[in-house]
Amino acid sequence: MKIRLLGSGTSSGVPRIGNDWGACDPGEPRNRRTRCAALVSTATTRILIDTGADMREQLLRADVGDVDAVIWTHDHADHTHGIDDLRQIAHNRGRQVAGYARPHTFSGLERRFAYVFHGRGAYPPTVGLQPLDDSVTIGDVVVRVVDQPHGDITSAGLRFDHGDSSIVYSTDFHELTGDMETLYQGCDVWVVDALRHQPHPSHPHLEATLDYIARIRPRFAALIHMDQSMDYAALRASLPPGVEPGYDGMEIIA
């Protein structure tokens, strides 16, 4: 089982509009970050995590035209507003895409994108929504879920298990709860939010994330959802062994 980081940036990406690179070196390709999304895959199963506004280009770069399912972590715009591009995946499959979301996330998606789930006029629905229970099986992957505090909402923290391999993906949260710590312990790979150096009310900053990694003790951790203050080379040089900055296109084998 492996995970490909389709995007590793914040809601504004890096650089921000206006060519704002902040502290990031524009000459380092790994500093160019699109909105967070990922693809978990085995030999027979592909699971897309989130459908941000950059999804089309992300899937083209990954040479992926089909997925078995999509899981939404929450309904914020930077994680959902590429949802229309699931239509082409449905065309490729010849049937609807299975979409999984927690009830509160589904409510927001259905309110804004009803046509995706119910169709409109001559256009059929492209996604068949499934409940994202605490444990679901998609193909040959078991997905276990915990609700993460993210400001005044929650996001879905995801643990993927296949054989003896495990990957945890947790973006958009601001503290590590006991339930999260229990589920994430013993994972091989943890892909985890580390927004910036300074504290933030709804995301962990670098110091907090490194503390969480020390508590979870994954074999390897990759940092995501990073803003323009997080230069790839400077950050990589400062991190402890087994922790690296994620970047768009990075692939990690569990």
From TrEMBL:
One Pfam family here: Lactamase_B_2
Superkingdom classification of source: Bacteria
SUPFAM superfamilies listed in its UniProt record: Metallo-hydrolase/oxidoreductase
Coiled coil ranges: none
Residues annotated as domain Metallo-beta-lactamase: 34-225
Full protein name: MBL fold metallo-hydrolase
Organism: Sphingomonas qomolangmaensis
